[in-house]
Design a protein that fits this description.
Length: 390
């Protein structure tokens, strides 16, 4: 080849942002749509911490292909998420999407179907999401998985009358529905279901209403990032001294916020998929690395959805030998099983839904810091809303 041609080719590729020696067909573009600003910004921060750590540990070349991440901020708004995903598909020609919160994941589903590209759901906890496209695979969790487990635990441990306080959007509705059904079947009674706005919640008036109903148990769901505000208002209302037992899915004692909570939270029992104190060599490395790379951030249950989402993408590419057609990648993802910092997980080959351990955890003070100590494990939990229909 003429020397001038090579020089010109390298110059053009460099201008296009592609390193010399790597051709377009050697690149796998992964478009990420997450909430980096807006009400759920703490969620975006955690999921990206997980994505970045996975790539730092495993490099950016898989099956001979370079992984290129293109990150877009949906600003916690579903319409924005949909528009950005459309741009990623049409303009950037991404091969795979990695998406976040429920409203965006839902809005993007028809685009993934039309483009026939995988939509890896790294955050959303709403069961219905995986039914919206055959190209959706989830590495996060469902609220149903956790709410069924805590309902059974509560009923077995003397809880009889519960008030539900629920953040008013899709995952909250699911937490309430699954908790209510399981708890009632176990003999419990729901005294009231109180809905709190998702954005900038002020829990105080709702907590007063809950207290006035005189329950023995308070089941609470709100998304990651709101636990600090909730805990403060819970204590200010004197709820910690009321004798009412606080329970919920893991969001309630989110590792993201737990270090800043008061000792009043000690003893709170939740059912969650991940604890920063999960006792495994892999998780010890994980927690330390997330902390180091993110200014002391404590890894939480959202971060592992990003970390495992990248694992799923990397391993699927290895299985297809670097081929990026959506059907081939989805086939490779179905049934995949691996060890996560949270414990063993797998992808249900029939529903493309995550199967994972749900842990009963109790808040304890260890070395001067609050942690969710895992005290019991329910193994390989499927999403109950799908399991029931089979
Ligand atoms: C969701 O988008 O479904 C979601 C986000 C954060 C949570 C729980 C659910 O903590």
């Amino acid at each position: 080849m003429e020397r001038w041609f090579l020089v010109a080719a390298i110059a053009i590729l460099t201008l296009l942002g592609t390193p010399p020696g790597i051709w377009a067909q050697d690149i796998v573009k992964v478009g990420l749509v997450h909430s980096m600003t807006g009400g759920l910004a703490p969620v975006g921060k955690q999921v990206l911490a997980g994505v970045r750590l996975y790539m730092q540990q495993h490099g950016d070349v898989v099956a001979g292909k370079k992984i290129e991440i293109i990150l877009k901020d949906d600003t916690t708004v579903a319409d924005m998420g949909k528009r950005l995903a459309q741009e990623l598909i049409v303009n950037e020609k991404v091969h795979i999407l990695g998406v976040g919160i429920t409203p965006s994941a839902m809005a993007i589903a028809p685009l993934a179907t039309e483009a026939k590209i995988p939509e890896v759901v790294m955050v959303s906890g709403t069961s219905a999401v995986t039914k919206l496209s055959p190209y959706i695979v989830r590495t996060s969790f469902t609220l149903g998985q956790q709410s069924a487990v805590i309902a059974e635990w509560a009923a077995k441990n003397g809880s009889k009358k519960t008030v539900i306080v629920q953040s008013d959007w899709a995952p909250g509705a699911e937490a309430t529905a699954v908790f209510t059904e399981t708890y009632k079947r176990a003999g419990g009674e729901i005294l009231d279901t109180i809905k709190v706005p998702l954005a900038n919640p002020d829990f105080a008036p709702f907590l007063q209403r809950a207290k006035d109903a005189n329950p023995d148990t308070l089941f609470v769901f709100f998304p990651s990032g709101q636990a600090g505000t909730f805990a403060k208002q819970f204590v200010e209302r004197g709820m910690d001294k009321s004798g009412i037992r606080l329970i919920g899915p893991g969001d309630v004692t989110d590792d993201n916020d737990l270090p800043g909570m008061s000792d009043a939270m000690i003893g709170v029992v939740t059912a969650g998929l991940y604890s920063a104190s999960h006792n495994s060599p892999m998780n010890k490395v994980y927690v330390e690395a997330i902390k180091k790379a993110n200014n002391g951030l404590r890894a939480n249950f959202i971060s592992v959805g990003g970390y495992d989402g990248m694992h799923l993408i990397y391993e699927a590419l290895k299985k297809t030998g670097g081929r990026t057609d959506g059907d081939g990648l989805i086939a490779a993802m179905k049934g995949m099983a691996w060890e996560s910092p949270r414990g063993p997980i797998s992808i249900d080959p029939e529903t493309r839904e995550i199967i994972q351990n749900i842990y009963i955890r109790k808040v304890e003070k260890i070395g001067g810091e609050l942690y969710n100590t895992e005290i019991a494990t329910v193994e390989a939990v499927k999403d109950p809303t799908k399991a029931a229909k089979k």
